[in-house]
Amino acid sequence: MALKGEIVVDIEKCKGCEVCLAHCPTETIAMVDAVNGKGYHYMQDIHGKCTGCTNCAVVCPDGVITVYRVKV
Amino acid sequence: MADTITKAEIINPENLVYKKTSMMTNNVLSYCPGCGHGTAHRIIMEVIDEMGLQAKTIGVAPVGCSVLAYDFMNIDMQQAAHGRAPALATAIKRLHPEKTVFTYQGDGDLAAIGTAETIHAANRGENFTIFFINNGIYGMTGGQMAPTTLEGMKSSTTPYGREWQRMGHPLKMTELIAQLPGTYYVTRQAVHTPVSVRKAKKAVRTAIELQQQNKGLTFVEIVSNCNSGWKMTPVQANQWMVDNMFPFYPLGDIKVDGELVKK
Amino acid sequence: MGKELKLMKGNEAFAEAAIRAGVDGYFGYPITPQSEVMEYLTAEKPHERTGMIVLQAESEVASINMLYGGAACGKKVMTSSSSPGISLMQEGISYMAGAELPCVLLNVVRGGPGLGTIQPSQADYFQSTKGGGHGDYHTIVLAPSSVQEMYDYVELGYELAFKYRTPVMVQSDGAIGQMMEKVQTGDQKIRLTEEEIIRNCPWATTGKTPNRERNIITSLNLDSLVQEKHNIKLQKKYREIEAVEVRFEKIQCDDAEFLFVAYGTSARICLKSIQILRAKGIKVGLFRPITLYPFPKEPLYKMVKNVKGILSVEMSAGQMIEDIKLAVECKVPVYHFGRMGGIIPSPTEVADFLEHQFIKG
Ligand SMILES: Cc1ncc(C[n+]2csc(CCOP(=O)(O)OP(=O)(O)O)c2C)c(N)n1
Ligand code: SF4
Ligand code: SF4
Ligand code: SF4
Questions:
Q1: Are C and B neighbours with ≥3 CB pairs closer than 8 A?
Q2: Phi-psi region of A16 (alpha: psi -120 to 50; beta: other; left: phi over 0)
Q3: Which of B145, B242, C126, C166 is the most exposed place for a label (fewest CB within 10 A)?
Q4: CATH at residue A18
């Protein structure tokens, strides 16, 4: 049995600080080239390998990440 | 089957494992990208949420970057003059012993201009909780030296680094506070990694629970970054904090159950 | 506890009035000549009589900020001090005016500047009536001239403080604080319950319940336009206070050709000087401002057509005289007589000054 997760980033509130990046155990997240309304590159799950561990959400200073998880 | 579960199926309320607490408002935080103030706010509010204390909590915001904490914390709050939050909290708690009362203060606010209020509230054993954000600098006013600025550390008023001979020593306010009989629980935490955030949140919960038992002052220091004041990227700042701040301000409990922790 | 007739010091009367008015918290720091306030309160065990909290703070800075915290919860809070201590509180008073918080402060004025003397003075008039701290604000200032008024202005002070959501200063001096007189007390009032406070002060931080928005007490507005709007609102309140809350007393003014204008201890001295002068056929009266802010401008202006001159008597270098001159718009000569540094002028000195320097001089 494995865990499969999804994150939802509140793109307009992400400040592109990159604090979350180093704490993703599956290295599935990265900053994207696009920018939000404030001009910040924002974070996304780009490899689809999220396990829903919540690390990124817990460490994000702006609380912009929501995490969902299912057992598969 | 399981392999074909779609994104839309996962993003479903019943699968929710982490969501910003409703005890934080939806206002965009006024803090710089990567600043620890946001995380510190959030864990405090998560504890208020989990303990169901919204209607019973009164918070006090300081003067400093977190002066607008009341825009972000979804509770009744008061904004204090620079350094005086513990005086406000003293009166609030004395007049409302059944309420949960806390102050949220920076190092300039708590350990420079407000030293007297901090020490005396602690020494009287006032039954509220102080959250002390130590980023070793005055963030709001543009990065001047704080009492907590490390030796050799640069700031806009120590452009060549702090020399103790002329600028005094960095002040370990938390160790000082722990010496006072009025404090019951004194701890130093950080919020730069998921593990540290979870530990810090536990400390916040312990502090609030002890406050409810009228044990005396509970004090949670959070060593944090001021990447703007330190003139680094947030990621660099967190690393610099680990390499430089933690050796001088070591993390961990300093006083537990009214007893100093033996090291 | 029912009404009582008691012999008390001014400072004690103030403290007893606080307990009977149902004050929730007193926070203070010792300073002569007003330390009896906290001494009386602690001796009376108000925590047993009414549940009132009395706390000796680490400084006047802490005291005033404790008032901020308590007032922001809708509680009746109080402090007392004397001149240097009040100076130290000014930042906090400004914050309370800005955040629109009610409280009653007592200043038992002593001679300054600096550490000065511990003797009575009235040299804090500017500090009390012109704002005192930073920014555009006023506190309502009540000036008792008897021990009875020290008692009465506590109740009146809270009435005004809550009506206008503003700090109220009772401005006394070392003589009235220390002297003993008969006092008729009022009945014991019961302290307000939390429900009553929530009803009376819906703005107070009493804990956010689901049925209302968050209550936030702050004096900060980062947007200057919002801050200006807030200032305009405050100024409107001060204009209303100036229109409605002026209080004063006129004594032997009907036939007076000369007027003393004096408050507090100086007003008592002037009463004696009037006797001396009237015995010599000089028709003098006393106009006694009770509210120093709002200053009774119009009532005083109405009197100028009947008098030849005004003598402001104040234990200072001449502070109130500025308000008198503004009030009478230079229609009559206005002089100042006063002693400084903690000296109370004698009735004869005051009478002599009026007779020889003012009338004949
Ligand atoms: C009486 C007074 N003095 C000085 C200031 C200016 N001031 C505002 S914030 C601040 C320092 C805040 O630093 P700190 O408490 O470390 O908080 P941070 O901004 O770093 O979070 C100062 C000196 C003030 N507002 N009031
Ligand atoms: S929840 Fe965990 S696995 Fe998923 S993106 Fe965040 S850190 Fe990575
Ligand atoms: S930590 Fe939060 S704000 Fe910073 S980049 Fe990641 S998602 Fe964005
Ligand atoms: S200046 Fe420093 S403390 Fe203030 S918000 Fe920015 S990073 Fe945080």
A1: yes
A2: left
A3: C126
A4: 3.30.70.20
Q: Which atom of ligand 3 approaches the CA of A17 most closely?
A: 4
pLDDT in tens, A12-71: 999 999 999 999 999 999 999 999 999 999 999 999 999 999 999 999 999 999 999 999
Chains with 3 or more CB pairs closer than 8 angstroms to C?
A: B
**Is B242 in contact with B164 (CB distance < 8 Å)?**
no
pLDDT band at A1 (very low <50, low <70, confident <90, very high): confident
Whether C103 and C67 have beta carbons less than 8 Å apart is answered as: yes
A-B contacts at Cβ under 8 angstroms: 95
For residue B144, which phi and psi values (nearest 5 degrees)? -80, 170
For residues B114 and B134, give the distance between their C-alpha atoms in angstroms, rounded to a whole number.
14
Task: Tokens 């015995």: give the residue.
Answer: C279
- Cα A27 to averaged position of ligand 2 atoms, centre (Å): 8
Task: Give the pairing type, strands B16-18 and A65-71.
Answer: antiparallel
Buried-exposed string A35-68: b where 16+ CB fall within 10 A, e elsewhere: ebeeebbbbbbeeeebbbbbbbbbbbbbbbbbbb
> Which residues, 6+ apart, have CB-to-CB distance to B231 below 8 Å?
B143
Rounded to two decimals, the pTM is 0.97
- ipTM of predicted assembly, 2 dp: 0.96
Report the CATH number that the domain containing residue C141 is assigned in CATH. 3.40.50.970
For residue C346, tell me if it sits in a domain: yes
Residues C270 and C188 occupy one common structural domain: no
The pick from A15, A32, A35, A38 for probing ligand 3's pocket by mutation, whose C-beta has the most ligand atoms within 8 angstroms, reads A15
Task: State the residue range of the domain holding C166.
Answer: 5-195
Helix, strand, coil percentages in chain B from 3-state DSSP, rounded to 5: 40, 20, 35
Residue C137 has which token pair? 């604000």
Distance between CA atoms of residues B167 and B162, nearest Å? 6
CA distances from C22 to C17, C40, C180, C204, C277 (A): 9, 16, 24, 18, 44
Task: Return the exposure string of B159-192: e unless at least 16 CB atoms fall within 10 Å of the residue's CB, then b.
Answer: eeebeeeebeebbbbbbebbebebbbbbbbbbbb
User: Are C320 and C314 a contacting pair, CB within 8 Å?
Assistant: yes
Instruction: Enter the CATH code of domain B31-260.
Output: 3.40.50.970
β-partners of residue C346 are none
Domains of chain B by residue range: 31-260
- Angle between helices B85-95 and C60-71 in degrees, nearest 10: 50
- For tokens 């490899």, what's the residue? A47
Cβ atoms within 10 Å of C280's Cβ, excluding its own = 9
Residue C355, in any domain of the structure: yes
